[in-house]
Each structure stands twice: as structure tokens, then as C-alpha cells.
Specification:
It is a single chain. The chain is of the alpha+beta class. About 35% of the residues lie in helices and about 25% in strands. It is built from 2 helices and 2 strands. The chain has a two-stranded antiparallel sheet with strand order 1-2. A hairpin with a 2-residue loop joins strand 1 and strand 2.
Length: about 60
């Protein structure tokens, strides 16, 4: 990065809100929707389900029947 490119960056209110949300999230993933370089929406992803594990668990529990 060139020296003249090192200008102070100022955050918009939406960017500040996004950073606050990131800091508040204890764990997980955040999907960020950006429109024309501005964050417009963030979705907290809390749960992920692996279908392979569910199928294996159901199959092994049905074997006892």
C-alpha cells in the first residue's frame, strides 16, 4: 500500500452497526448482504444440521427394533 493511500477511513452508521453486531456475537456465522459497497443486512446463522449424522442416528436406533 502506498503512503498516499493511507488515509483515515470513516465508518458509516451501517458499518458501525455491523461491527457492533460482530463483537456481540459469541459464536456462529454472519451472512452480510452488501449493496453498492454498503452493508444493508446481516443474518446470524445459529444452527447447522448435517443430514448424514441424522440419517446414521435414525438408522442405528431402528436396528434395535
Amino acid at each position: 500500500m502506498k503512503e498516499e493511500d493511507k488515509k483515515p477511513m470513516y465508518l458509516s452508521e451501517k458499518e458501525r452497526n455491523l461491527i457492533e453486531l460482530i463483537r456481540k456475537v459469541g459464536f456462529g456465522e454472519i451472512r452480510i448482504v452488501v449493496n453498492e459497497g454498503v452493508p444493508t443486512r446481516a443474518e446470524e446463522i445459529r444452527k447447522s444440521v448435517l443430514f448424514e449424522q441424522i440419517v446414521e442416528s435414525a438408522t442405528s436406533s431402528n436396528k434395535g427394533n
